[in-house]
Amino acid sequence: MTRFEVRDLVVDRGATRRAVDGVDLALCSGTLCFVLGANGSGKSPLLRAMAGLEAAASGAVLVDGEVVARLDPRGRARRIAWMPQGLEVPRRVSVFDLVASARYPHRGVFERLTVEAAADIRAALRRVGLEGHDRRRCYELSGGEVERALLARAFAQETPLLLLDEPTAALDPRNRLAVAGLLRDWVAEDGRIGVVASHDVNLAAQVATHIVVLDRGRVVAAGSPESVLTRAGLEPLFGSNMVIGRRFSALAREERPFILAWDDGSRGEAESVPSRRDRTP
Predict the structure, then answer these.
(1) pLDDT exceeding 90 applies to what percent of the chain?
(2) What is the pTM of this model?
């Protein structure tokens, strides 16, 4: 059982306000947490601080009681896999070598990949639907395939914690759903923790077990999708310009909320759309 904690975290970039302002968070194995917020709300600084890549002015980030900022790079990479937004991949590198680069925390500088490690890499590629693509060069891949290869790389790192900054931002709706499903299965089946910064509220609604909403660096709502995806919880993102309904999700295997951003010119409360089960035939 892994425990990941953020304690009263402050990231101060010297601007007019703090990028992250007193965030507290506690997650355990089997949790897929989506961090939602408008542009400039502090999502990326928060995840970078969680990954140990941005210094905190105060507070701490801990994995199983160990302070992330005090870990050496290799020790940190054994605990946390980091997938930043818009990561450029070397064009001529093979898919296999791209994924294999994630194994560096587990071997010496000049140590060759073991047979077991190579099998783990191919298993990661199989998991993301890229089995048999290991010899292709990265420039031959589509945008969706590149994101899948990067996700396989993160899986192959074999860490208890995975942090992803906008992993589906450049993907079409079909690939967004596919990547979200892969993340959900990886967390649920392997008992790991995933933290995803995203603008996609409806994707979070379908796969997240925990949602955090940031506004100006502060947590303004946190909890299950049912408790957070409400008018009160989403006002920092949409104001009153939203329609909230419910629909069955095959990813969640149950009904979940969905949100439509819609400005009808009114200044009243947003409309609510009933579930199909609640409608009269």
Answers:
(1) 61
(2) 0.90
Residue 281: is its pLDDT beyond 80?
no
Going from the C-alpha of 42 to that of each of 7, 13, 21, 23, 260, the distances in angstroms are 16, 11, 9, 10, 23
pLDDT tens-digit map of 195-216:
999 999 999 999 999 999 999 9
CA distance 61 to 4: 8
Neighbouring C-alpha atoms within 13 Å toward the C-beta of 175 = 17
* Contact call for residues 256 and 206 (beta carbons, < 8 A): yes
HEC letters along the chain: CCEEEEEEEEECCCCCCCCEEEEEEEEECCEEEEEECCCCCCHHHHHHHHCCCCCCCEEEEEECCEEHHHCCHHHHHHHEEEECCCCCCCCCCEHHHHHHHHHHHHCCCCCCCCHHHHHHHHHHHHHCCCCCCCCCEHHHCCHHHHHHHHHHHHHHCCCCEEEEECCCCCCCHHHHHHHHHHHHHHHHHHCCEEEEEECCHHHHHHHCCEEEEEECCEEEEEECHHHHCCHHHHHHHHCCCEEEEEEEECCCCEEEEEEEECCCCCCCCCCECCCHHHCCC
d(CA 11, CA 236): 20
